[in-house]
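[Automated response] Your request has been received and processed.

Submitted sequence:
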Amino acid sequence: MRFEEKTPARGRGEGYQEYVGGLHVHTEYSDGSASMERVIQAARATGIDFLVIADHDSLGAKKHGFEGWRDGVLVMVGVEISPWRKGHCLAWGVDTCVGYRDADARVYLGQIARQKGAAFAAHPEGKSRPCGLGRVEVWSDWDTPHLAGMEVWSFMHDWSEGVWPFGLHQLPFRFLDPARWLRGPSVEILRRWDRIGQERRFVGIGSLDAHEVGMPLVPWRWLSCERIFETVRTHIRSERLAGDAERDIRTLRSAIEGGRCHIANDRVCDSTGFDFWGETAGGIIVSMGEEVAYERGVTLHVTCPAPACVRLLRNGADVAFAEDDAMRYEPTGAGVYRVEVRWKTQPWIFSNPIYLRSRQG
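Generated structure:
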């Protein structure tokens, strides 16, 4: 196992560190061609600290003992609930998913909650799949309290958008350099995230939706785990992971479900070291994902590992912009504040919000 010191999370104080994760990975337990051993090897090779496995309607990797620390990578096994012609759901912290794909979303979300699991809308836009492989329908059950958040940026759905039917000639180039074709979260997804965030805390995560594509007797893989794992990753801030699998998975869940994380295409540029936090007039630190009452004198801080185009948004509208590696801003009112960063012309980093609530709300 490897427990070397990671990057300190600047806005959290001593003891908090940053870890890099690959969420929503498929294996041979559903429709991926990679074994668990292969996935873990690729995660270690690409600098990933933790993985969230999400095979379709299967907890096979958990039942076969892959959850926990494996070769220096913390593995949490979840599931992608994937009913036909309905929105899909990413869930973890559950020991069963039997019958979920045939149930109404509100029913299985309640069952996940009773297991003390967490649920996120997976690729909620319902984008078309390439090569005529059908369509995943949009997520529609937004007002249930059992939904913790959603995938704001999905590598596979971003990468494949626009291929079918008029972009098939692009496929060889898309396979050779997958990250080049990513356009970032859609305007519709970001608007919904901002809108729900004004009503309640709603976590955004980045997902890989990784399906390694291999062919029999051919060693080269079209969409290798390594190529995918370098792209849309979720960076968490948490207490130091120490090697106790059960405790560390609880720590991992707390960080993700609490929104103490940012999403980034690390193939563009490594986003390790990015942070977004607030500080009240009384010196209280407010991290991404946290809610506090707005008061005069609060200051929001952004730091980036390199100079870039930094946007600060309030309720989805721009309030500050800088071409730099840092930003400092004093809000003049309550709102849901989050950060978007572009590396040159490419979408790079999307933070979870800081919720400065009005005292009446």
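Summary generated for your ticket: Residues 7-265 form a domain with the TIM Barrel fold (CATH 3.20.20.140). Helices lie at 36-45, 60-63, 105-114, 155-160, 171-176, 187-197, 225-229, 245-257.
If you did not submit this request, please reply to this message.
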